[in-house]
Amino acid sequence: PSILVHLKSAPVDADPFAVETIRSVNPALGIFLDEGDLVTEAERARRLPAFEPAFRNLRLNQRVDAGTELRLCTAAVWRSGAAPVDADRLEGRKCFAALDLSGKHDLTSLTLAFPDDEYEPGFDLLPFFWTPLGAMESRRPAEQDLFRQWIDAGHIEPIEGPVIRSRRIAEALLRLRRRYDIQAVGYDRWRIDDLKQDLVELGHGDLDEWLQPFGQGFKEMAPAIEFFAECALTGRIRHGGNPVLTACVANAILTADPAGNQKVDKGRSNSRGTTRIDGAVTTVMALGLAKRFVAAPALNVLAMIA
């Protein structure tokens, strides 16, 4: 004749990641909820803010602010991957690349992800950046200062003139391909036709296999962001502390669709951050592309063995 709902919600001042807090609001633990799984979720949410709102809402029954800015990665987690990356020792190694051409006046980014030869590989990251010197004055003062520091230190390659011409990027891609075993290059479809034409004119023929479309919408970015988070959380990303890439990741803000799928929100990230976030986008894309070719087949093999 009646239904009584008893909602157990964690107090707002309780430690949301403590085992005691999780137990207090999940009476089904040990019945049909696995405590180990929830503790793993809590640890992921603690280290990666992008997962904290969903954890609080679904596991602690707390109200969350839908407008909370979701960061791609915390500074502490990213710093843990600052192990040195030796570009010379990676010569000839298999890797997967991702390219974001951005606007002609903006920051162009390319990231190479080198997987270890393991079933659950870690990745060495090599980022490359280009920016037009002629557009420097249009940047915000703080960003101008950072860009000039990074150019002087060799972290960004300056391009003379007001725009970045796609042929310059095509030539760089081919130079890198001669040095590293680039298996595939993921790209967003925007402005890719000019680059393809330049590659053809430079004698690069196998474009259909080498260039892999990789959209920056929810469909393709959501699983790539999940894989990025998994690798960051388990210490499987090594980036050498590159300051440009670090700034890109620190400023990257995520947005979610109604189903909870996430992508990087370039508009909000670039408008609120001190620098552009293109390097974060290409890093997520490169790892997502690597997962297509490396991680997924390895996990399938492990499943067959089990």
Structural overview:
The longest helix has 28 residues, at 278-305. α2 packs antiparallel against α3 (52-59), α9 crosses α12 (278-305) and α10 crosses α12 (278-305). It is elongated, with a radius of gyration of 21 Å. Strands 2, 3, 4, 5, 6, 7 and 8 form a 7-stranded mixed β-sheet that branches. It has a 3-stranded antiparallel β-sheet with strand order 1-9-10. The chain has helices at 19-24, 35-47, 52-59, 75-79, 141-152, 166-179, 192-201, 207-210, 218-233, 243-251, 266-272, 278-305, and strands spanning 70-71, 94-100, 108-115, 123-132, 157-159, 181-187, 211-213, 237-238, 253-256, 262-264. It contains 12 helices and 10 strands. By secondary structure, it is an alpha/beta fold. The N and C termini lie far apart (49 Å). 33% of the residues are buried. Mean pLDDT is 87; it is low at 297-306.
